[in-house]
Write a structure and sequence with these properties.
Helix content is 27%, strand content 23%. The chain is an alpha+beta fold. A three-stranded antiparallel β-sheet has the order 1-3-2. Strands 5-4-6 form a three-stranded mixed β-sheet, with no helix packed on it. Bound molecules: zinc ion (ZN). Its main location: cytoplasm.
Length: 125
Amino acid sequence: MAGLRPTRQRVALAELLFGGPHRHVSAEQLHGEADTANVNVSLATIYNTLHQFHEAGLLREVAIDASRSYFDTDTSDHHHFYVEDEQRMIDIPAESVEFKALPKAPEGMEVSHVDVVIRVRRASA
Ligand SMILES: [Zn+2]
């Protein structure tokens, strides 16, 4: 549990999150899944747990805008398509995005990672 106390709720949420293939999930989606699985947790607890998992390095957070974040169970380097009309993330392998020039990090700082989110929508016919 990456140094986190394995409370019943954390274990149940970890099972929902990590029990299958890699995926991207919002707090609201996970809350719905918890409900369906009869795991009784508040949305606030879901938020706290997701942020604790994120801080423990188990999840990567991908912010779409100020009010919407997805949590990615794949913490390796990669980028994302965000399908706007379906509110869904699709992975882009790290090597398919190339940067011609990146600014140097400010004095005394280093780049931690670079996130690219490419927003897409259904092409109109
Ligand atoms: Zn991803």
